[in-house]
C-alpha cells in the first residue's frame, strides 16, 4: 500500500542511475592513460567498480 500510494504521487523506486556523461568522461580519462583509477573516481564521482563495469562492457 505504501509503494502504491508513492507511485500515485509520481514517485519511482530504486537506485538512481549513474550520470552517463560522468561515465563517458571517466572512460575517456582511463583510456588516455594519464590518470590513475583513484584520480578518475575522485574527479568524476563514480565508483571504481562502476568504472571497471563500463570498461568491460565497452570492450566486448
UniProtKB/TrEMBL annotation:
Ranges of compositional bias, category Basic residues: 1-15
Gene3D superfamilies assigned to the protein according to its UniProt record, in alphabetical order: Homeodomain-like (1.10.10.60)
Domain of life: Bacteria
Any one GO MF annotation of this record: DNA strand exchange activity
Chain residue ranges for the region called Disordered: 1-22
Limits of the Resolvase HTH domain: 14-57
Entry protein name: Resolvase
Source organism per UniProt: Enterococcus faecium
